Give the backbone structure.
Amino acid sequence: MVAWGHRLATVTPRDGRGFALTFDDGRRADCDLLVGADGARSAVRPLLTDARPSYVATLVELTVRDVDRRHPDLADLVGPGNLWCVGANRILAAQRLGDGDLRVGISSRAEHRLHGKRELLALFDGWDARLTALIDAADDAPVPRRIEALPIGTRWTHRPGRTLIGDAAHLMPPVGEGANQAMLDAADLAAALAADPADPDAAIRSYEAAMFARTRPIAEMSARVQAMMLSPTAADDLTRFFATGPTG
């Protein structure tokens, strides 16, 4: 059964076997097998490893509402999908949403602290006014987000009754692989448990060994792509990337 609206706050190992779970609204539950699929700030991860995410980039999001009616020039600029404008150490992007709004995203290096429109516009000083209009037209205050990643090759010694999948296990920069790997984690773990229901710990060991081997090179590639996208020569680097494919 899926129980929505439960944000896991704490996990306490029970005497003998299993775990006591406490959610942020005070509700409690118990389980014998715990799969931490609770993302970057996983409450389950400390049961297996001391690894913590590090800050690798900044993403600021803005929204331009009802763009076709209120800003037809920006609607034409972005078109039916996405617009990406790549500069030195920064990206200005926009994405058409299904509700008629436009989501604007600004990516920069971790050391940039960007909170207001004035700072964002200063970051793109000298850019074409048709592009910076995406910032000017935003209706809401900018929403800054930290882009974080776990150390590449994060792994742990198997412990009975618990494991991790997705961002909880291998948080990567958001360059297109994190969600794919999370879904594959879930499918592989489910298949292993279904194949050996009498010995879930053997199934977890098998899943973890395969997951560690599979995700390490993908995390390495994701880190390289993230660094390339925010490099001083990002436009040229991205052109070469799509023309020739990723390289070591």
